[in-house]
Every structure is written in structure tokens, then in C-alpha cells.
Structure to design on (424 residues):
């Protein structure tokens, strides 16, 4: 089987050439994570760190692709991670996101996804939750390319 | 060239009128601006020209200033990304842009209202008075107050671009005050003069906000600030918005029906 075939979410792509061309930052990057747990099934919208917060809902793969994820996106925000392709029980996800809007009264929700088509499902979950919520909150979608470039960043 | 980048645009244009024409080609309307205190370098950033357009416009400007010399063209430093297509507003900015739509519906009607105006008709004078009430209640107290009391506080109010907008608001208020006095005196000339002046001012003002100011603000606001603005605007809407909006919408619909204007969709 040739490379670059099949589902864009699981096809094989090799970036090793890029590794030789780019250098990692000299200093250690400080973690900006300020909570635990982080998986969307495990977190509670009632947790103190979500109340009135700017929340980041990140697709599982994003933090591996986006080199400066901690400083550029996670800093100052509360987090949950999920995979719209593999996770089960996604109706519960909609309820939890809705609860962020209505009960935790979050300030904003930013959804970070990969460019692969299946990842758009996470934005759809957030949109569904927002549509069914009585309280409206600014929702932003950030799409990350396979090599960590920001492809788009838009308020929805 | 650096010296001109740091010069107010009005001075630059008065010394080199051709530069005003060049800027207009790039939809940068500094020539009719009543203030003109923005610096040339800020204009390039605020209007968010693409890098290619920036190189082009800077080359043309430098040729006007130094026709006989080839000089290195400085790149304008930017804090934010260059534009990538259609304008997409954040939710709080979208609210303000949407409010402009109703204001534009009223100012579009003004020429016809003035054409049909008979100052001896109580009904005609009532329309002008209600139009002034629309401007004071909706465009000013409701909409401009959101800008002045909330949005502009997130920026340095000494910035030229904000001072220009605030001056427009002040000018608009003085036209409305003069309009109301003219209505009381049944002074047709005064009514026509001030309502037309308001229409011209607000048409330009809204265009500047929709196309330049709000996109520039969006590029400079943090995610947290966007959320805060959205909540604060919602509070204003809940406290004072609904009654005012409904009353002012009803006024516009009434005038549209009266002068039988086809209800064209006004795009934000």
C-alpha cells in the first residue's frame, strides 16, 4: 500500500526531514497546565478551575503537533482534552460542554483541532452544546496543521 | 522616509496631495477624514494591508516624496497578523456591526424623508423628532455608549484612531442637538442641513468602524477580553436594549412603509 492513501486522519506521513532543519528551543518550556484531570470524561464542569474561566478544549493530537502549545494557547486557560474520532459517549461531552456554558459560566471556549476532517467533530460538539445552551459564550476554533502550523483561527 | 512615517497623515497629504489619491486606491479614506492625526505608519498597520500591498503602497508613496531618489523602503512593524480574506468579527464586535445595520436603515431613508418634508405638517415633524429620538436612544445612548463606556476602555483612548471616532460621536451629538432646535422652530433649512450632515458623518463613521476599527480591535484583543466584552454587552442589552431596540425598529419600519421604500437588505 502506498503512503498518503485512505483516511486523512490515520494515513502515514513522514516529517523526519523537517527535524534536521529545525532546532528545538534552548531553554526548557515551563508547563502551563494548572489542573488535573484533563480528559473530558474525567473532568467535572463544577470544578473550581472552570468557573468563569477561559476554557481550551483540545483534540488529543494537538499538543503533540503544536510546538508552543503551552505558551501560545494553554497559558491562563483551563483545559479538557478529547478525541472526536475514537472517544465513546460523546453525548455526555455535549452535556458537559453545555454545563460549562450554563453552570460554570465560562468566559470563552476555544476549540483546538487538527486539520484532519474527523477532528471537525469536536467543533461540531461545541457548536451543538452552544446552540442548546441558554447562555451564549464566544466560541473560537483553531485548526492546526500536521506540522504544527496554525491554519486558521476564527470566532464562530 | 522614517520622518514621514511618523508624521500625521493630514500633514503628509497636504504636502503631497498625490499620497491621498494613492491611499484612496487602497480604500484608505484619509482624505475626507475630519481629524487626520493618525501617523502614516499607523495607517498602514490599522488598515491591515497585506505584505504585498504594503510594499506596493510604500514604494508609490516614497516615489511621490522622493521622485528623483531611490530610497530603501522601511517595513512597517506590526503587532498583529496581516489579513487573510473576508472580515470575520468576534462575537462582541459582531453585535456592534449588527447594530449598525438598523442605524444604516434609518440613514438610508433620510434623503427621501427630507425630500417629502413639509414643516407645516405635524406628522412630518413627528417623524423628524422620532428620527432624532432614534439617533439619541439607539445610535447614541445604546450603541455609542457600548463603545465609549466599555469597548474603548480596553484601548489607549489617546490613540489617534480612537480620538477620531470620539470626535465623530461629539460632532454627531451636536448635529442632533441642532436638529431638535430646528424642529422646534419649524426651520426646514436647519432640519435639512443637520440631518444631512448627520447622515454623511455616520455613513463614513460606520464604514470606518466596520472595515477598519473593529477588525483592528479584534486583532488586538485577547481571548479573555473578547469574553468579557461579550458579557458586558449582553448586560447592556438586558438592562436597556430590548425596549429601545424594539421601539427604534418599529420607527424604521414605519418610515419605510410611509415612503414605500423597498426593504432592501442592508449588509453589515
Amino acid at each position: 500500500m502506498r503512503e498518503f492513501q485512505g483516511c486523512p486522519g490515520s494515513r502515514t506521513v513522514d516529517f523526519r526531514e523537517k527535524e534536521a532543519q529545525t532546532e528545538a528551543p534552548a531553554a526548557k518550556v515551563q508547563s502551563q497546565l494548572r489542573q488535573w484531570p484533563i480528559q473530558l470524561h474525567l473532568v467535572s464542569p463544577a470544578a473550581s478551575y472552570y468557573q468563569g474561566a477561559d476554557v481550551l478544549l483540545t483534540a488529543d493530537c494537538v499538543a503533540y503537533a503544536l510546538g508552543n502549545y503551552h505558551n501560545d494557547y494553554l497559558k491562563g486557560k483551563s483545559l479538557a482534552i478529547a478525541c472526536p474520532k475514537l472517544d465513546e459517549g460523546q453525548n455526555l461531552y455535549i452535556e458537559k460542554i453545555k454545563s460549562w456554558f450554563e453552570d460554570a459560566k465560562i468566559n470563552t471556549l476555544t476549540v483546538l483541532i487538527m486539520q484532519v476532517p474527523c477532528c471537525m467533530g469536536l467543533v461540531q460538539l461545541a457548536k451543538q452544546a452552544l446552540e442548546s445552551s441558554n447562555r451564549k459564550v464566544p466560541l473560537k476554533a483553531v485548526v492546526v496543521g500536521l506540522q504544527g502550523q496554525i491554519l486558521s483561527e476564527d470566532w464562530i | 522616509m522614517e520622518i514621514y512615517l511618523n508624521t500625521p497623515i493630514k500633514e503628509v497629504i497636504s504636502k503631497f496631495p498625490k499620497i491621498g489619491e494613492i491611499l484612496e486606491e487602497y480604500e484608505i479614506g484619509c482624505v475626507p477624514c475630519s481629524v487626520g492625526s493618525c501617523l502614516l505608519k499607523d495607517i498602514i498597520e490599522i488598515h491591515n494591508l497585506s505584505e504585498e500591498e504594503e510594499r506596493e503602497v510604500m514604494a508609490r508613496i516614497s516615489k511621490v516624496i522622493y521622485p528623483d531618489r531611490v530610497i530603501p523602503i522601511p517595513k512597517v512593524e506590526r503587532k498583529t497578523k496581516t489579513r487573510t480574506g473576508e472580515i470575520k468579527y468576534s462575537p462582541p464586535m459582531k453585535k456592534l456591526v449588527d447594530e449598525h445595520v438598523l442605524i444604516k436603515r434609518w440613514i438610508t431613508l433620510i434623503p427621501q424623508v427630507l425630500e417629502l418634508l413639509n414643516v407645516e405638517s405635524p406628522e412630518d415633524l413627528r417623524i423628524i423628532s422620532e428620527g432624532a429620538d432614534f439617533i439619541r436612544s439607539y445610535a447614541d445612548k445604546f450603541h455609542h455608549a457600548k463603545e465609549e463606556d466599555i469597548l474603548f476602555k480596553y484601548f489607549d483612548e489617546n490613540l489617534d484612531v480612537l480620538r477620531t471616532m470620539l470626535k465623530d460621536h461629539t460632532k454627531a451629538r451636536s448635529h442632533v442637538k441642532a436638529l431638535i432646535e430646528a424642529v422646534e422652530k419649524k426651520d426646514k433649512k436647519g432640519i435639512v442641513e443637520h440631518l444631512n450632515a448627520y447622515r454623511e458623518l455616520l455613513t463614513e463613521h460606520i464604514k470606518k468602524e466596520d472595515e477598519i476599527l473593529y477588525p483592528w480591535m479584534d486583532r488586538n484583543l485577547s481571548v479573555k477580553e473578547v469574553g468579557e466584552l461579550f458579557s458586558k454587552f449582553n448586560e447592556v442589552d438586558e438592562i436597556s436594549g430590548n425596549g429601545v431596540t424594539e421601539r427604534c425598529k418599529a420607527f424604521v419600519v414605519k418610515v419605510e412603509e410611509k415612503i414605500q421604500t423597498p426593504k432592501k437588505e442592508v449588509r453589515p
Notes: Chain A has a mean pLDDT of 91. Chain A touches chain B through 14 residues (CB under 8 Å).
